[in-house]
Design a protein that fits this description.
Length: 91
Amino acid sequence: MAVWGLSFGGSATLLLTAAADSAGENVDVVQAMLTTSWNVAIAGGGLFGGLLLDRVGAMAFPWALLILSLVAFATVFVNSHYSFKPGRRSH
């Protein structure tokens, strides 16, 4: 639990900052969409994980994690121009 907290604890702040950086004047809308997508991802992860466990078994989880990690890294790489900007925020 401590390792998870140390490695993942600050991600909500980082994701909200990245969303705000890319949103411009539409910060409220983007933050609401981020919160909604976060909740959909939690529900979808439970559903997908349950189906994967039931249909394929626990040995499918490392492969699913690899695929999802590659998608996450590709998403960050492609969108790094719009968000995750270095330096101080002006607003």
